Amino acid sequence: MLDSIIVKAPAKINLTLDVLHKRNDGYHEVEMVMTTVDLADRVHLQPLNSRKIQVESNNGFLPTDKSNLAWQAARILQERYAPKTGVKIYIDKKIPVSAGLAGGSTDAAAVLRGLNKIWNLQLSTEALAEIGAEIGSDVPFCVHGGTAVARGRGEKLTFLPAPPPCWVVLAKPAQGVSTKDIYSRLNLETMKHPDTGRMVRAIEEKDFHTICLSLENVMEEATFSLNSDVKMIKDRLQQYGAEGAVMSGSGPTVFALASGQSRADRLCNGLKGFMEEVHVVRMIGTPHKPL
Ligand SMILES: C[C@](O)(CO)[C@H](O)COP(=O)(O)OP(=O)(O)OC[C@H]1O[C@@H](n2ccc(N)nc2=O)[C@H](O)[C@@H]1O
Ligand SMILES: Nc1ncnc2c1ncn2[C@@H]1O[C@H](COP(=O)(O)OP(=O)(O)OP(=O)(O)O)[C@@H](O)[C@H]1O
């Protein structure tokens, strides 16, 4: 058994997000293009000789009990493959919580990848992603990282090349939203669907301009109606010269893409005048390297 390990757990953004219909199991069939950005939690894993799973974090608002998705990931692996060991998980939280950036899902994915290594389980990435789907719909993507079209509940992944290098300005309004609530408020009859095919082609052709034109998210209307700040931030980003801007996931984070750092910094400075949580990061878009 290896000693401690620190696993980087990056946030995701949705370049497109489409909802096709509601399924009999209560979930929705989705089609969305997801990619990773360089805003990441650091998940520290330290094996324990007892069966304890202990979670700590620098963020006092995070649950440290079994409702933490990182705890759930450790429990599943322990029950199935390593009944005699435990782990201390310390989450150095950098990703805003309840933001639409898959913060909890990426921590769970980091625990799956990290424990696979330190408990020497030798599970494939596909097997870890399958386990991840039991924890949450965004976890399989977070296990792989990179850029992908996600279908089904979010677990059926078709991988794409990385988008062209660019900057991402992430703006998170203070008030969070519940993913479940936003799904239940969607108007499936009247929504305008994104052109997912155009986004996929633009990524394959590394056509930054068309990527910006193709950013679309069917959840915006529902989130805007609950939190008017979200629309206001998107409008401001467009007024300040964003090449493209859209909400990520169920929100409330809105992001803008910029081909150069100076434009990204200008957008960030414009927003900083009236909101606190703004990050300028690089798009990553390539799958995680093996640990
Ligand atoms: C909005 C997205 O973040 C886009 O990437 C995801 O679709 C949500 O992924 P997630 O937060 O991992 O979602 P889960 O934890 O699996 O589900 C939370 C709740 O969202 C709803 N949900 C989620 C995924 C999906 N395909 N259909 C749904 O209806 C369900 O009500 C579920 O109870
Ligand atoms: N490790 C974790 N990090 C963040 N939130 C967690 C974690 N584990 C459980 N949670 C809980 O999950 C809820 C959603 O948090 P999260 O940051 O994952 O939202 P999100 O970014 O909107 O997720 P998604 O984009 O996957 O819908 C919060 O209520 C939080 O308390």
From TrEMBL:
It catalyses: 4-CDP-2-C-methyl-D-erythritol + ATP = 4-CDP-2-C-methyl-D-erythritol 2-phosphate + ADP + H(+). Gene3D superfamilies: 3.30.230.10, GHMP kinase, C-terminal domain (3.30.70.890). The active site is at 12, 138. Pathway: Isoprenoid biosynthesis; isopentenyl diphosphate biosynthesis via DXP pathway; isopentenyl diphosphate from 1-deoxy-D-xylulose 5-phosphate: step 3/6. GO terms for molecular function: 4-(cytidine 5'-diphospho)-2-C-methyl-D-erythritol kinase activity; ATP binding. Keywords: ATP-binding, Isoprene biosynthesis, Kinase, Nucleotide-binding, Transferase. Its EC number is 2.7.1.148. ATP binds at residues 96-106. Residues 199-274 form the GHMP kinase C-terminal domain. Residues 68-146 form the GHMP kinase N-terminal domain. It comes from the Bacteria. One of its GO terms (biological process) is terpenoid biosynthetic process. It is an enzyme of class 2 (transferase). InterPro entries: GHMP_kinase_C_dom (IPR013750), GHMP_kinase_C_sf (IPR036554), GHMP_kinase_N_dom (IPR006204), IspE (IPR004424), Ribosomal_Su5_D2-typ_SF (IPR020568), Ribsml_uS5_D2-typ_fold_subgr (IPR014721). Signal peptide: none annotated. Pfam families: GHMP_kinases_C, GHMP_kinases_N. Catalyzes the phosphorylation of the position 2 hydroxy group of 4-diphosphocytidyl-2C-methyl-D-erythritol. NCBIfam families: ispE, PRK14608.1. This is 4-diphosphocytidyl-2-C-methyl-D-erythritol kinase. It comes from Alkalicoccus saliphilus.
